[in-house]
Design brief:
Number of domains: 1
Protein name: Biotin transporter
Number of helices: 7
Subcellular location: Cell membrane
Shape: globular
Number of strands: 0
Largest sheet: none
Radius of gyration: 16 Å
Membrane topology: Multi-pass membrane protein
Keywords: Cell membrane, Membrane, Transmembrane, Transmembrane helix, Transport
Helix content: 55-70%
CATH class: Mainly Alpha
Order of helices and strands: HHHHHHH
CATH topology: Arp2/3 complex 21 kDa subunit ARPC3
CATH architecture: Orthogonal Bundle
GO molecular function: biotin transmembrane transporter activity
Length: about 190
């Protein structure tokens, strides 16, 4: 990694941390609150690409593991990796990587609409599908909620996460126009 890469990774880790300042919104039917930090994960993947986006999340994991209160609600420490939200948290890493990899495929798209739509699909696949896969699996089997309750409870998050994916796609498109950071994927 170059010095520029390290700065960008640190910047997007800080963005994910900053989005954790917004208070979590608890839901009565599932032990996972609504947070804004998945927006930061989507942004890291879409704007930085798969490797640097995943590195930003990995740095976030280090901050959480050493006990810094960087997760939404001021949480931190190793307990975050075994609690009810652990699956969603762990899903951030492959989510950012997948979103970044898919976004890299749209880096050279000339049409603004097609590129923005491609970024939305990338954000939705990485930031929703992949993250939910890990989160629902953990709720169902790690927490013991059962698959039907875990899926039903997690469905309440989908509309908000779709809005986050739209915002991330629009932001990524704006960055690509003004100051492209996304690596081009070699075919």
């Amino acid at each position: 990694m170059t010095s520029r890469d390290l700065v960008l990774v640190s910047l997007f880790t800080a963005i994910i941390v900053a989005l954790g300042i917004l208070p979590p919104i608890p839901l009565a039917f599932v032990p996972v609150p609504i947070t804004a930090q998945t927006l930061g994960v989507m942004l890291a993947g879409l704007i930085l690409g798969r490797r640097r986006g995943a590195a930003a999340v990995l740095l976030m994991f280090v901050l959480v593991a050493i006990g810094l209160p960087v997760l939404s609600g001021g949480r931190g420490g190793l307990g975050a990796f075994v609690g009810p939200t652990a699956g969603f948290l762990i899903g951030w890493l492959p989510g950012a990587y997948i979103a970044g990899g898919l976004a890299e495929m749209h880096a050279d798209t000339k049409s603004a609409v097609r590129q923005t739509f491609g970024f939305f699909i990338a954000a939705a696949m990485g930031g929703i599908v992949v993250v939910y896969f890990f989160g629902v699996a953990w709720l169902a089997f790690g927490v013991g909620l059962g698959i039907s309750k875990a899926v039903a409870g997690s469905a309440a998050f989908v509309p908000g996460d779709v809005i986050k994916a739209v915002l991330a796609a629009l932001a990524a498109r704006a960055v690509m126009v003004g100051y492209p950071l996304l690596p081009r994927r070699s075919s």
